[in-house]
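Example 9 (inverse folding). The structure is encoded as follows.
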């Protein structure tokens, strides 16, 4: 039996609707607190972050290669993967920095090689999201 737990949303996402109080965004809340970068990225990973825009890759790069691997496994990018799987780090090959292993939403794993897997004919299929 598989259970699904909803992650706890940070309090900065809650809007205050009483008179005279304005809603607070996560960015405003994070600026006022003295947090280190790991705490900030943890809050942003837990929050439901949506991309503002998207464009297609034109040429191959290391970033495009990793995006190709995430999208093959069914995710937009590393941000969505970390949100869904609630992990802090993605396993990467130390030699190349490419993603080594990803877990799909149905809990099966994709294993990737050390070298490039995104061929030139597939580069234009890769979506690059802007946040």
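The amino acid assigned to each position is listed next.
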């Amino acid at each position: 039996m598989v259970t699904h737990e909803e992650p706890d949303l940070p309090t900065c996402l809650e809007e205050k609707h009483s008179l005279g109080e304005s809603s607070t965004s996560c960015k405003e809340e994070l600026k006022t607190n003295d947090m280190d970068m790991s705490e900030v990225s943890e809050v942003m990973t837990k929050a439901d972050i949506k991309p503002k825009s998207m464009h297609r890759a034109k040429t191959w790069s290391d970033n495009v290669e990793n995006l190709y691997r995430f999208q093959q496994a069914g995710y937009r990018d590393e941000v969505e993967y970390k949100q869904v799987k609630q992990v802090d780090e993605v396993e990467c090959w130390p030699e190349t920095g490419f993603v080594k292993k990803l877990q799909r939403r149905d809990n099966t794993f994709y294993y990737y090689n050390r070298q490039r897997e995104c061929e030139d004919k597939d580069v234009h299929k890769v979506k690059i999201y802007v946040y």
